[in-house]
Amino acid sequence: MPLEPLSLTVGQPLRVAVYNSISRAIRNGTYPLGSVLPSDAEFCTTLGVSRPVVREAMLLLEEDRLISTRRGIGRFVSDAIPRIGLERVRGLELLLGESVGSISVDRLSHEVQPASDLLSQALGLEPSAAVWTWESVLRRAGTELALTFEAVPAAGSAFLDPATDTMPEATALTRLLASVDSSHVSSTCDISVGVLGDHRATALGAEPDTSALILTQRVLYRGVTVLYAKDVILSAAGTISLLQSA
């Protein structure tokens, strides 16, 4: 499989475009784990860029632990690729499970209701349009880790029909991803810190003034918003990976 040509966006540094091209080649197996990479000169010729640009991209790849350098020998693909974090769309139970182990999803509610002003705006619906809402507590070994609230437009959301529920211990996002072509799914996620408040504290068995990480996520399928989620995560959930690029 040949190296993909550079994909440039307005304002993107050239080193980042080179980084993206090579990192995709590593993740899709063009350059297998542990293999030696082509020389900087070969990358210059293949991608049509200068040697300083390739070197800057290599520094970024090494910082992200995708490659390593052996002095006097060359650059090698890492033996293990770091996992992808929030930039990969996944249900919260799968994301948390990578750091603390298997997660159980205890559904507190699952119902159809008129959309609030917030939900109608977040999902691009007419005021008071019908939405499915899910609220679930995520636990590991009996310990509460997170509370997730998810909303999906009721129209066209047959995958949430309780009569056809084949994934009872899964978040709505996990079920959605299992029913569509994930290559057409994208999301935005806002991250903030707040306190639980009364309702969330009761669900999680904690004090109302307990601090928590709050993820507000909008998931799009083929450019249309199909799910809105607000996840409240306690410190017991551990580390969540977040990959950023310049």
Q: What does this protein look like?
A:
There is one protein chain. The protein is α+β, with helices and mostly antiparallel strands and 246 residues long. Helix content is 27%, strand content 30%. The protein contains seven helices and eight strands; from the N terminus they run αααββαβαββαβαββ. It has a six-stranded antiparallel sheet, with helices on both faces. Strands 1-2 form a two-stranded antiparallel sheet. β1 (67-70) and β2 form a beta hairpin. α1 (14-27) crosses α3 (51-63) and α2 crosses α3. The mean pLDDT is 86.
Overall structural class, as computed from helix and strand content, comes to alpha+beta
What's the overall average pLDDT, rounded?
A: 86
Strand content: 25-35%
Secondary structure tally, helices: 7
How is the biggest beta sheet arranged?
A: 6 strands, antiparallel
Query: What would you report as the Rg, rounded to the nearest angstrom?
Result: 21 Å
Task: Describe the structure concisely for a colleague.
Helices cover 27% and strands 30% of the residues. The protein is α+β, with helices and mostly antiparallel strands and 246 residues long.
